[in-house]
Specification:
This protein has 17 helices and two strands. By secondary structure, it is mainly alpha-helical. The N terminus is likely disordered.
């Protein structure tokens, strides 16, 4: 006997034999019917087999719990008129949401809105310049074939990362000062006939965001390339060989192989960094800022220090911290959701 294939009008015409169902629905049903992978189950045997790794993770877990989660109980100060002389945090006067209203409205509201804009401006500019600079440097270092020379370049670009921000702020202050005070940037601009007289960078508010972003770029440029270089090494070398056979040059291989190959790393790093947009560097705005540029220099962290702790308004400082945390969670979640919608790599 021979097998007879029964055809229906739907199969002949290439239509779905089950009206109303789609390929996505069939894939979902297939996944439900598929047997579960037994290796994904967490059993005591697997836990015991990984006991060394789990023991190594315990100190880090305890650190996170002790310094990240335990202090959350201090958020109660945001709903109190906190005074240290009254004793513990539970012996304070409760005021509800008055501190939130005071921070976001009135005179404080105008100042805090300006502070948020300054923080966003400095952080976004630093993030854009840092990401582009790290990508460009990683691509250029990847093209260097002389390994000793490549290591020297990497060490030179890594070294500023290990300097403290206080030293970096002092170096930036000297570099941007007048030529008579050692300001080599002004001296170079004048020698190149770009400017006729020294530019007072640290007294001009419109320059301050760029100064912060440029200083961040100089300090962290080499360090930020580490992950990108590691991602580049994971790309299959046969792809470059095939592209070279097809006549592709260096730039073609960069744009068609290297950048698409490290795209998941770029997306994940951008998602993570989005949570730090309101947590811009504290030291640079604090040490480089002065009364002449305070309108563009004061960030949330500087505001919390000056208006919260120095004036004894601890409750208002905690409200600003809660605002930063909530915004960070929203930004990370939104960036992760956008990456999923665009079919890119995501955190979860």
């Amino acid at each position: 006997m021979t097998d007879v294939t029964v055809t229906t009008p739907g199969t002949v015409l290439g239509l779905d034999p089950e009206p109303g169902s789609s390929s996505r629905t069939r894939n979902r049903k297939a996944r439900k019917k598929a047997p579960k992978d037994p290796h994904r189950k967490i059993t005591w045997d697997r836990v015991w087999a990984q006991r060394a790794l789990l023991a190594m993770a315990v100190p880090l877990l305890m650190y996170q719990i002790l310094f990240k989660y335990v202090p959350v109980y201090g958020w109660a100060m945001a709903f109190q008129n906190f005074k240290p002389g009254r004793g513990s945090i539970w012996n304070q006067q409760w005021v509800g949401f008055d501190n939130f209203v005071n921070l976001f409205t009135g005179v404080n509201g105008e100042r805090f809105a300006r502070v948020v804009v300054n923080t966003l401006g400095q952080s976004l500019l630093s993030l854009i310049l840092g990401t582009i600079g790290a990508l460009v440097l990683a691509l250029l270092l990847n093209e260097v074939k002389n390994m000793p020379f490549k290591r020297i370049l990497q060490n030179i670009t890594y070294m500023p990362h290990f300097l403290s921000w206080v030293i970096v702020a002092s170096l930036a202050s000297v570099a941007l000062s007048l030529p008579s005070s050692g300001g080599f940037i002004n001296e170079a601009l004048m020698n190149l006939n770009i400017v006729d007289e020294p530019v007072k960078f640290l007294t001009e508010p419109n320059y301050f965001w760029g100064i912060v972003a440029g200083t961040n770029l100089w300090k962290e440029l080499g360090w930020n390339t580490i992950l990108y270089l590691a991602a580049i090494t994971a790309i299959d070398p046969s792809l470059y060989e095939a592209a070279e056979v097809d006549g592709a040059g260096r730039y073609r291989k960069m744009f068609n192989i290297t950048l698409p190959g490290i795209r998941p790393t770029i997306v994940v790093l951008l998602i993570i960094n989005s949570g730090w947009i309101l947590s811009t560097n504290f030291e640079l705005p604090y040490f480089l800022g002065n009364g002449l540029v305070s309108e563009r220099a004061e960030t949330i962290d500087v505001f919390v220090l000056r208006y919260g702790y120095q004036l004894g308004n601890y409750s208002l400082a905690v409200v600003a911290g809660i605002f930063k945390t909530i915004v960070a969670i929203i930004l990370v979640g939104s960036a992760n959701l956008a990456a999923k919608r665009l079919n890119q790599e995501s955190l979860v």
